[in-house]
Amino acid sequence: MIRGKFITLEGGEGVGKTTNLTFIRDYLQEHNIPVVVTREPGGTVLAEKIRHLLLDKDSEIISEQAELLLIFAARAQHIKHVIEPALAQGEWVLCDRFTDATYAYQGGGRNMRISTIEWLENLVQGNLRPDLTVLLDAPVEIGIERARERGSFDRFELEKISFFEHVRRAYLLQAELHPERIKLIRANRPLVDVQSALIDVIRTLLR
Ligand code: Z5A
């Protein structure tokens, strides 16, 4: 059995991850590729419960360490019960956010030590890394404006603009550090242009 490919979508608030995840899924299915669509934090019953705890804006104050460990606890469960089994069966896994989000939000946004994140990444993931990561990038205000149109805010969305600027910078740094894996797509342009750039990137994996 040929192992499936692992694709992750990343980016700040409202850059269009969810919209484009559906687009990529449809594109792959048109090419007869079996796809599992999932998200982080989340993807299993337990991991979705952890997601709920992390996003709940009315919870007690969550310490940075607790937040980081909860994210990796959810990820451990997600990898073992969803991602690895699907890849082993030859299915492609399309995931809305993964560990680059941890480097961006906890590393960049919360200013946590990168070496701690790396340590947890190695512990929880072993050798598992995405085959391709699409980083949708747009100025922070654009993403926030798009997300705001949805109405309600979760615990992260209540952060200040400077937090999201740090997140964006950390994402761009990840792209610089891993140019083979992370493909940057400008998301502050019409959706058809974003999606045409996406097809170019996805085609490289299909070859
Ligand atoms: N988090 C973390 O801290 N550490 C981690 O390791 C992980 C996550 C994995 C949940 O993420 C939170 O978890 C996240 C970080 C934290 N918090 N934040 N912020 P999430 O993925 O559920 O949350 P999100 O970033 O808030 O997703 P989102 O707001 O749903 O954004 P999106 O999926 O990127 O955007 P969208 O829903 O596809 O699009 C937003 C709107 O813009 C929608 O109306 C679209 O129709 C529109 N749109 C999209 N593209 C375009 C273009 N090109 N032009 C015009 N309009 C567009």
Quick take:
The protein has helices at 17-30, 45-55, 64-88, 99-109, 114-125, 140-148, 161-177, 191-206; strands at 6-10, 35-39, 92-96, 132-137, 182-186.
Strand residue content = 5-15%
Small molecules held by this entry: ligand Z5A
What count of helical segments does DSSP give? 8
Distance between the termini: 18 Å
Structural class: alpha/beta
The profile of the biggest β sheet is:
5 strands, parallel
Task: Give an account of the 3D structure.
The chain is of the alpha/beta class and 207 residues long. The protein has one domain (6-206): P-loop containing nucleotide triphosphate hydrolases (Rossmann fold, 3-Layer(aba) Sandwich). Helix content is 56%, strand content 13%. It contains eight helices and five strands. It has helices spanning 17-30, 45-55, 64-88, 99-109, 114-125, 140-148, 161-177, 191-206, and strands spanning 6-10, 35-39, 92-96, 132-137, 182-186. It has a five-stranded parallel β-sheet, sandwiched between helices. The longest helix has 25 residues, at 64-88. The two termini are 18 Å apart. The structure holds ligand Z5A. The site of ligand Z5A has 25 residues, from α1, α4, α6 and α8.
Question: How is the topology of this model organized?
Answer:
Blueprint: E1 6-10, H1 17-30, E2 35-39, H2 45-55, H3 64-88, E3 92-96, H4 99-109, H5 114-125, E4 132-137, H6 140-148, H7 161-177, E5 182-186, H8 191-206
Parallel strand pairs: 1-3, 1-4, 2-3, 4-5
